[in-house]
Amino acid sequence: MTLPTPVFVAGGALCVLAGYLVGTVATPGLPERTTATVVSFDASQSRLCLQGDGVSGQEGVDSQGVLCGTLQRTPAAQVPRRGEKFRFVSVSQPGEDRGKKQQQVVIYGDVVG
Question: Is the pTM higher than 0.70?
């Protein structure tokens, strides 16, 4: 038995739509990109510090409202300079440095404009 072409196409479209809906409902949300101001950047250690409304609520922010972490960027990306706007996503996880427990923060992003 063969199906008429319109029924076959409609069935395929429904399968694709159902897969999309299941994927959007079942997958965890992506981290939200936000913007902050560059406080400092140490290129020798790839250590970036950010400040502003964009860092509030992020894990790893210190008591002065500054988020510091290791910057991961592409080699062709612009080097961040103090005062520039920086769009980023940060990932924080517990870690150890020289036997001392602390949050390990990795920052992914680039200078805006």
Answer: no
